[in-house]
Amino acid sequence: MTLLYSIIESPSHPDLSAVYDALGIQEIKLPSQRKAIAELKRRPPDWVVAEFFYGYGNNYAGVNVSNLDVFLHSQRKYAPDARIIILVTPRDLPHVDKLTALFEIEAVLTIPVDREKLIAVLQPSQR
Description:
By secondary structure, this protein is α/β, with parallel strands linked by helices.
């Protein structure tokens, strides 16, 4: 069975559980990057869906582009085959290219998420 992490760090993260259920994808909801990194070591996912928050100023120690950098470095080590879907607000969308220049991202979806676009990204994993 396909395993997907939903890393839910804010109230703007949409509830997409019905989409995952309809596609037969097992979802693990994780409330933080730290918990997601710990889970990577136990059960590597096939997919990760997480929100992107750009590091304006020094929010992320000035070294990282966003909230996802540390997780994505760990993902490379513990789950290198996992595919990443980034959810982004229109405000942060102009900054996503800084993250995609550093990490392989399968898809970037703008919030509110178009469920048909999400399904189109996820369905190849069901073959």
